[in-house]
Amino acid sequence: MKSTTAKKSVLYLLFLIVGVPLIIFLVLLGKIYTFGNHDFIQKAKIEVVLGAAEFNGTPSNVLKARLDHAALLYRQGFATTIITTGGSQNGDLYTEAGVGRTYLISLGIPPANIIADATGNDTYQTMVAVSKTLKSFGATNAIFVSDPFHEYRVYLIASQLGISDISSPTRTSPIRGLSSITYYLREAVAIEMAKLVGFKFLSVLRHGS
């Protein structure tokens, strides 16, 4: 009888230690997937393209997909100004924001309607910079264009910064299907860590103050 009770106690303890966190993590994954696979598009003054890699002045396929989607929304009249974002890595001659702006101009978007903001080197830094630009426009919301796996984290950070996030994920990214699993897992881990220490702290930890 005692051994049975002891086994139950051990199993219950294992459930608390392993099972509960796993369930919470899986629920979060579900939220990230569901949010990223829904388009909340509506009109706004500004749309923001979250940065991704560029190669010697040429947008990567991931960044190109985001920019193409932003251009489409612009042509459809959902926004009148596009902010491209993203800094540069050590040794880069170009910034993601600058490359994004150049690419949008090549698609026929008027240069006067594109703002390149290369302030941030991660999502949090980018969103802080964007929030300041939005305030200068008197805007409290914006359309945020990124990959589906990324949109939920963008939404959470935007909410903390007082920005109303209109999420519109690209559907043409090369990161899809099985290849996207790692990205979804990484997003879930980042969000869980941010619950403990905050997005700002994670950013400082990664890049310094």
Highlighted features:
single chain; 209 residues; alpha/beta; Rossmann fold; 5-stranded parallel β-sheet; two-stranded antiparallel sheet; 12% strand; Vancomycin high temperature exclusion protein; transmembrane helix
Low-confidence stretches: none
CATH superfamily: HUPs
Structural class: alpha/beta
Query: What is the average per-residue confidence, as pLDDT, rounded to a whole number?
Result: 91
Overall helicity: 40-55%
The description of the largest β-sheet is: 5 strands, parallel
According to CATH, the fold-level topology is Rossmann fold
Tell me, what's the shape? elongated
Radius of gyration: 20 Å
Task: Describe this protein's structure.
This protein is an alpha/beta fold and 209 residues long. The protein is 55% helix and 12% strand. It contains seven helices and seven strands. The chain has a five-stranded parallel beta sheet with strand order 5-4-1-6-7. Strand 2 (54-55) and strand 3 (58-59) form a beta hairpin. Helix 4 packs across helix 5 and helix 6 (181-197) packs across helix 7. The model has no long low-confidence stretch (mean pLDDT 91). Pfam families: DUF218.
